[in-house]
Specification:
Elements lengths: L5 E4 L3 E6 L10 H8 L3 E6 L15 H14 L5 E6 L1 H12 L4 E7 L11 H9 L8 H9 L5 H8 L2 E5 L2 E4 L3 H6 L1 H5 L11 E7 L10 H7 L3 E6 L6 H4 L1 H13 L1
Parallel strand pairs: 2-3, 2-4, 4-5, 5-8, 8-9
Antiparallel strand pairs: 1-3, 6-7
Helix pairs in contact: 2-3, 5-6
Amino acid sequence: MELLHSRIIGEGRPLLILHGFLGMSDNWKTLGNLYAKNGFQVHLIDQRNHGKSFHSENFDYETLANDLKSYMANHNIPKANLIGHSMGGKTAMQFACSNPKLVEKLIVADIAPKYYPPHHSEIINGLVALNLETIASRSEADNALASHISNMGIRQFLLKNLYWVEKGKLGLRFNLPVLQYKMEEIGENISSTATFTGETLFLRGDKSEYILQNDFDTIKIHFPKATISTISNAGHWLHAENPKEFFSKTLDFLNR
């Protein structure tokens, strides 16, 4: 049984944080340190096929939720608070619905319990086109990606995954060959009958279209105790775009 890679910081109440698609635990380092200073033992987790975790052909939300269950058992965590962003939010929702007794409170960042059609194709195409045999630096990789992805913030987010496999040879941390074929799975919904009756907070960016007004009823069906709140001046990467408000709202909810 392979275990997820994580970075654990702080002491106190367990708080597990799950990154989004093509992200990694490192994306949450700054916020993780803040939660750790406020009485939490923070687990920044790399989901399978991402970051420093293992690669596998199997990739769907039930599998990702089971990875989390094994992780908690291995770390002797009887119950935890969960934060999941985007794809990580879907994993967190699936996990909470399947294992309600293991979840203290659930925070879902900018994703709804619904199906999303694949919409990352230009990102995937840009990454597939990267020739890491000939690219010798991060700036060369950025230039190559720029012809596919104009948004510099997204390029920087993706390029955090670049690392030196060996001297002079760059590689990507995520498992691109599998993820490019699992685009349908990334958009998949949790089961139509799945429910979690514990305390839940949904956060959405005011400039994001991932959680719409007409998703509120669906959220309440799956998560009857859900509170839905909006982060100002933020798109889909709300925790990075307005970390101050994100931190304040989440800490308030966790301590309530």
